[in-house]
Amino acid sequence: MTIRVSNTLTGEQEAFEPEDDSVLLYVCGLTTSDPAHLGHARLWVHADVIDRWLSHRGYDVRHVENVTDVNEKIVARVGADDLGETEQAVAQTYTERTIEDMRALNLKRAEVYPRVSEHIPEIIELIETLIERGYAYESNGSVYFDTTRFESYGALSNQSIEELQAQGPEDERAEKRHPTDFALWKAGGVTPEEVESHRHEDAHDAETAAQTSCTWESPWGEGRPGWHIECSAMSMAHLDETIDIHMGGQDLVFPHHENEIAQSEAATGEQFARYWLHVRLLDTGEEKMSSSLGNFSTVQEAIESVGTNSVRTFLLSTAYNSRQTFSDATLHEATERWDRLERSYNRAVGALDSADAIATVTDERLRTAVADAIAEFEAAMDDDFNTREALTALLDIATAVNRHTEDSEYDYTGLKAAVDAFERLGGDVLGLAFDTDTGGTVTVATEAIELVLELREEERANGNYERADALRDSLTEFGVEVEDTDDGPEYRLPDA
RNA sequence: GCCAAGGUGGCAGAGUUCGGUUGACGCGGUCGCCUGCAGAGCGACUCUACGCCGGUUCAAAUCCGGCCCUUGGCUCCA
């Protein structure tokens, strides 16, 4: 049961071998400057499933996911769209929305979601250590990391420092010794205008010029932390100097993670993270994924549209280390996959609870199919968390169950195994909620639906099919799927 | 320019690490069974797929060489 993972550090897939049964996992979660879109959700959900699988395999996972609430991107939003007049206010708004999104995605809660604004002392302390050890220098009230002092700089992203020296923004070069040096601490604050002019020429016309970003006192004067130091500080503060897995989006490999490694290892002399897993990006084919695209770009919209389970199924339909395409067609496919799974699950549960489930009936085809599928699921997850294959295994169970229930007598043991597999692997590991019948409002709705169905049955019995169809159509409009079976009508509630 | 990842059937997307089970699974489409109808489900079909050209081999999507193309990063970005 060796688990294999793709390690960006080595560029190869290798056996995952933590030092003991505990796994320290750090995920570069989100900068709270915009509503989270499906790309963010992709990282979260894959990190969530990796956490769940490692736990399933017996590891004690300590999962930390950061919330970057101090950042120029946030400052850029100050004064826009009534988000607030300060960096904290904007960050607060989006931190709350982010947490809501995470809850809605049915993510297992991380051990802690540390925020940058709460870790300024740790950050300052880390910078002081770097200065003491000669890896950082002060310049004009700012502090920079001297990349030429860190020998393996560029190792993660496979870039030579010589190549990199030629690049970098001109305006920052003046204060730095080398173009590749990066800020650990930046003197003073920044205004939205400064950020915007740095990013776009014709950005929003904020009139709040007086508003500035957050600043803190430091040994180098008033200022704010640089772009990468927070992850090093928080990873060490909440986990350890060396952790097992550091995750993030592929776009963070350089410079973010490269810089994290440099500053962390320079400060501690220890390896920062053993395995670097990067979730590849979500693209939309031709168009770029952006909030201006509309439709399902935000997590909230996607969930409102097709439900949590379909969104998760979609995100897990492509392995984390492969690029994924988002489109109406691919999302539709995912909803169909989820629907098939859920229908089959309900079918299995219904059969199991019926009088036709008989202890002495044996369907070898069902039993071996379920056993094979479980083995396939486990092998797929062990093989670099191949969620696509894992989902396939679940769908194989669905097919086996559907075939089996074509008969009139059911193999109790076989169906029980199938239901358990759905709940244990699909539910606990992939985080798909098969059981949606919870809550008082659902109960009331259920009764109302059943009443309508009773009426429809009466109409059908009397041959009033037009009337019966109208009743069914009205339920369909509310998202209630009606399905006539030999045992009478059944229905499925909308997923949300 | 530098770095990285890819090019598989109408779409999407596994398989490539350790060459030789199923053209995975699903979506879409067609037909049949079932059914008052629809849906779901089952069955069958739809496709002699692996960017191009060579090479190694009994055998290559999978290994080697060359070429073409796409995308991403190199500036904040999951």
From TrEMBL:
Its main location: cytoplasm. Keywords: Aminoacyl-tRNA synthetase, ATP-binding, Cytoplasm, Ligase, Metal-binding, Nucleotide-binding, Protein biosynthesis, Zinc. Binds 1 zinc ion per subunit. It is found in: Cytoplasm. Zn(2+) binds at residues 28, 231, 256, 260. GO terms for biological process: cysteinyl-tRNA aminoacylation. GO terms for molecular function: ATP binding; cysteine-tRNA ligase activity; zinc ion binding. The keyword Iron does not apply. A motif ('HIGH' region) lies at residues 30-40. A motif ('KMSKS' region) lies at residues 288-292. Its cofactor is Zn(2+). It comes from the Archaea. One of its GO terms (cellular component) is cytoplasm. The keyword Coiled coil does not apply. Residues 376-441 form the Cysteinyl-tRNA synthetase class Ia DALR domain. Its EC number is 6.1.1.16. It catalyses: tRNA(Cys) + L-cysteine + ATP = L-cysteinyl-tRNA(Cys) + AMP + diphosphate. Pfam families: CysS_C, DALR_2, tRNA-synt_1e. ATP binds at residue 291. Belongs to the class-I aminoacyl-tRNA synthetase family. This is Cysteine--tRNA ligase. It comes from Halocatena pleomorpha.
